[in-house]
Amino acid sequence: MKKIAIIAAMQEEISSIKNLMKFINVKKIYNLEIIEGIINNKEVALVMCGVGKVNAARTTQILIDNYDIEYVINVGTAGSLNDNIEIGDLIIAEKLVQYDFDITAFGHEKGYITDIGKEIYSDKNLIKKCTDIIEKSDLDYKVKIGTIASGDTFCKNVNMKNDIKNIFGADGVEMEGAAIAQVCFLDNIPFIIIRAISDKPNGNNEIDFEKYINIVAKRYANFIDFFIN
What we know:
It contains 6 helices and 10 strands; from the N terminus they run βαβββαβββαβαβαβα. By secondary structure, the chain is of the alpha/beta class. The chain has one domain (3-227): Nucleoside phosphorylase domain (Rossmann fold, 3-Layer(aba) Sandwich). The longest helix has 22 residues, at 206-227.
């Protein structure tokens, strides 16, 4: 039977999803602990990939190679680049970019990836499911469908924040989503990236990240509970 793959970078980010699961079994592949179980009568495989794009891409490919995947969900936290998106709100990526991918020396735009392009788009049907939830459910938090930028640096510098926002029109920034998107795109697997805002880059936002990570994780878990139903 097909499984829904759910990927998050950190233990704090998978714990809220694990709390939704029933009939849990743990399978180990290489050094990954894959938590198999049921959410709302759907079979899921939940895994902590580790921080950063390489860890995220590797984990995504391992799941695709070892399971019959219906679609991939990446959950976790993000920093807000949009003044209208506050801590505790959600960003769902309609498109993703890698802000640190740079072959401008060869005449390409910042973020352009050979044979991929500058932007990778989430599955339209999964985005439609998200918009249906937003329209039909009584959510006590804001959900923005927009652009997420990924790169291998925790964004805390205000100038860096402004550059990513201005160059890519991004609403949020994190460290894994676009890498997962790239692997899914290349393997023709539907995917969706759902992130809760834990901080706003301001020079010392790592303090907010540590403070709010467990709180905001409950927000995307709530949304996933609606989504896998």
